[in-house]
Design a protein that fits this description.
Elements: H1 7-20, H2 25-35, H3 43-70, H4 75-102
Helix pairs in contact: 3-4
């Protein structure tokens, strides 16, 4: 079997082969074809997860600053953090389910 690749693709293949620790490039390519998986994640969903994580981190930091200055943590602050965490679980569970499918 022969196939063509661009210089950039060849460089990427060689880099992945070197990082694989395998001794034979033929074995590496064969393994990738027979056992490899292509996983496509939505950049929009990943950006949303990142945004939610940043929001949670900022809110936790604000609570910590307030707790250090006043010595108090408010129930409303904890409820807000719990709500934000609940929002992030759905996309994380989706990604987890997609990755678990690869094992089968």
């Amino acid at each position: 079997m022969k196939f063509r690749v661009s210089d950039e693709e060849l460089e990427a293949i060689n880099k992945k082969f070197q990082n694989s620790g395998m001794k034979s490039k033929s074995d590496f390519i064969r393994t990738m074809i027979m056992e490899g998986h292509i996983v496509i994640f939505s950049e929009t969903e990943l950006r949303e997860i990142h945004r939610l994580m940043t929001t949670i981190a900022n809110n936790v930091n604000q609570i910590a600053v307030r707790a250090n200055s006043t010595g108090k943590v408010y129930d409303e602050d904890i409820a807000e953090i719990k709500e934000e965490i609940n929002q992030i679980w759905q996309p994380l569970r989706y990604f987890q389910s997609q990755l678990l499918r690869l094992k089968h």
